[in-house]
Amino acid sequence: MLSYMDVLTHFDEAGRAVMVDVSRKTASERIARARGRVKMRSETLRVIQAGGIEKGDVLGVARIAGIMAAKQTAHIIPLCHSLNFEQCKIDFYTQDDSVEASVEAECTVKLCAKTGAEMEALTGVTVALLTIYDMCKAIDRAMTLSDIRLEEKSGGKSGRYLRSAG
Fold it and tell me: Within a domain: residue 19?
């Protein structure tokens, strides 16, 4: 039977948390894409789309916040390596139907490094969604963040992961 130390890379043989040693790895192109959603009232989405939030351009500010957060991942996730990106982008998709309204955010991080970009993409998308909440909470405190997930990653020893493929 495998123990957690046999499969989790952030523990040493004594079970202590460690930063993974990537010194012997070869740098490769790596891409990670994460998505998440903030659900809200239809009225809130309409105000965002109309530019009616007093604090400013909600999606523009959320985009910059997400990119800045992705670049700071190693400062807030203790065992992440500091990475230099070739690209980090945040895209938004809105949905409004009779049941609920939402903004879905997607963060894509591209780099050439010895370790991946999954945590950076997940951090970027999460902070983008939190920024939307922060900017709109005065009119809708019932907003809900949900479905934050890695959609795709490529590069490195583990190869490609695509959510729809499992």
Answer: no
CATH number at residue 61: 3.30.70.640
pLDDT tens by residue, 83-114? 999 999 999 999 998 778 999 999 999 999 98
On whether the CB atoms of residues 11 and 17 are closer than 8 A, the answer is: yes
DSSP result, 93-119: EEEE-SS-EEEEEEEEEEEEESS--HH
Measured distance CA(144)–CA(6) in Å, rounded: 36
Which domain, by its residues, includes 125?
40-153
Of the residues 6, 97, 134, 140, only one is catalytic, namely 134
Decide if 91 is catalytic. Answer: no
Question: pTM for the full model?
Answer: 0.89
